[in-house]
Specification:
- The protein is an alpha+beta fold.
- The protein folds into two domains: 102 residues; 80 residues, EpsJ-like (Ribonucleotide Reductase Protein R1, domain 1).
- Helices cover 42% and strands 16% of the residues.
- The chain has six helices and five strands.
- The protein has a five-stranded antiparallel sheet with strand order 1-2-3-4-5.
- A hairpin with a 2-residue loop joins strand 3 and strand 4.
Length: 257
């Protein structure tokens, strides 16, 4: 009787051991699968990033190309599909955009209303934008619980506008396609978006376009690369001057996101 009891206990130990080993095996397998999936995702993400950056460089050299294959900043998408990958590049001319460094508050308020900001918030935010680059008060920012203050200098980048009192990421995203900090403030209506063109005509504040003989282009390149398991997006602003003798001096990257 005692021997049977010992045998039963031994069998129970064996069964519990097997169950534990099976559980450990499942855990090890799941961990290995997760690690493999993470490695695959990292590899796909890196591949997409390299592809997107390659698209940006391709766009720059196509802008400098003097042959009929040359690309222009006409906002037309250039799309390619190969080996399961999708690549899309667009090039936009900043000459048709509004410069917040040279725009009066009334025009900026009108633009803000066009992108969905209602009064009186639009007028207040437009005033804050003007104050940031000129006579902004540190006390007003401190009262709003912000640890920074207006530098009283022109915006160096569009991203800097996120620091303006009252600005939100959503509003800035809606403004971004219509503004630039890289022009002298004149807007070429022939290159402006429908929204900007209608706005300038309605307020009668359009300025004469830059001289037509200028070869300098301020272009925004948007590149999207999608590969199996990953995707990457790059937004780059470049200054292109094909009149430069050396290709290395013919373009300068102004912003890279």
């Amino acid at each position: 009787m005692t021997r049977r009891r010992d045998h039963g206990f031994a069998l129970l130990v064996v069964l519990w051991t097997l169950a534990l080993l099976a559980l450990l095996g499942s855990h090890v397998t799941a961990t290995a699968r997760n690690a493999t999936a993470r490695a695959s995702a990292i590899r796909a993400g890196a591949e997409a990033q390299v592809a997107a950056e390659g698209l940006v460089r391709q766009a720059i050299f196509r802008l400098l190309d003097s042959s009929p294959r040359r690309w222009t900043a006409d906002s037309r998408p250039h799309e390619a599909h190969r080996d399961g990958r999708r690549e899309v590049v667009t090039i936009e001319d900043h000459a048709g955009r509004i410069n917040p460094n040279a725009t009066p508050p009334a025009l900026m308020a009108a633009l803000l209303k066009q992108v969905g900001v209602a009064d009186p918030a639009a007028a207040g935010l437009a005033q804050s934008i003007a104050e940031w680059r000129s006579y902004g008060s540190a006390q007003a920012y401190a009262a709003a619980g912000l640890s920074w203050a207006p530098p009283r200098e022109p915006f160096a980048t569009i991203n800097e506008m996120a620091l303006v009192r009252g600005m939100t990421p959503e509003v800035l995203d809606r403004l971004r396609p219509h503004i630039t900090v890289y022009t002298d403030g004149r807007v070429d209506l022939g290159k402006a978006s429908a929204l900007v063109g209608q706005l300038l005509l309605s307020v009668g504040d359009s300025r004469p376009p830059p001289p037509q003989e200028s070869t300098i282009l301020i272009a925004e390149i948007s590149a999207l690369a999608t590969v199996p398991g990953g995707r990457a997006f790059r937004r780059v602003v470049v200054r292109v001057d094909p009149s430069e003798d050396e290709t290395a001096d013919a373009f300068h990257v102004l912003a890279w996101d």
